[in-house]
Write a structure and sequence with these properties.
By secondary structure, the chain is an alpha+beta fold. It has 5 helices and 6 strands. Strands 1-2-6-3 form a 4-stranded antiparallel beta sheet, with helices on both faces.
Length: 155
């Protein structure tokens, strides 16, 4: 819990409207994640960070090809880099999964969405979107994998 408070302080330096979840991926029953079980033996925990996408002046969610959308991706990368360094300084292994440009493959479900789902931050729909109860699918996600013994939502 103490480390989670530190995580929140770091995130709040970058943004106000965010999601944070921790999952034990080694316990995940998701068929896609099970394919990577040996990988999750080395990095059993995930830290999911999501930033809510803002609306534009017309009241529509911002377009994924805008400068603001790319700035949110950069915020996520800054946050995950900072948190990874902090965990490494404490002696834990980390693998920061960077936020990348959008993928056009509608059949692809990203590790970001899978980890956030296992951390109980939202549900994955048949179209591959992760839908949160608060803002639906309008969240950009980033993920850190680690061996740090963090308390997970799915324990």
């Amino acid at each position: 819990m103490e480390f989670e408070n530190t995580i929140r302080k770091i995130i709040e330096k970058e943004c106000e409207d965010y999601y944070l979840g921790i999952a034990d991926l080694s316990l995940a029953e998701n068929d896609i994640l099970q394919q990577y079980k040996s990988f999750f033996d080395e990095y059993p925990r995930s830290i999911s960070i999501g930033i809510t996408l803002p609306y534009n002046a017309a009241g529509e969610i911002i377009d994924r090809n805008t400068k603001l959308y790319n700035e949110i991706n950069q915020q996520l990368n800054i946050i995950t880099t900072h948190l990874s360094k902090l965990l490494q300084q404490e002696g834990y292994k980390t693998l920061s999964i960077p936020k990348t440009e959008k993928l056009d493959d509608k059949n692809f479900i990203s590790l970001h969405k899978l980890a956030a789902n296992v951390a109980d931050l939202g549900e994955i729909e048949t179209n591959g979107s992760l839908v949160t109860p608060e803002v639906g699918p309008e969240v950009n996600w980033s993920t850190i994998l680690t061996d740090a013994p963090l308390e997970a939502a799915n324990q």
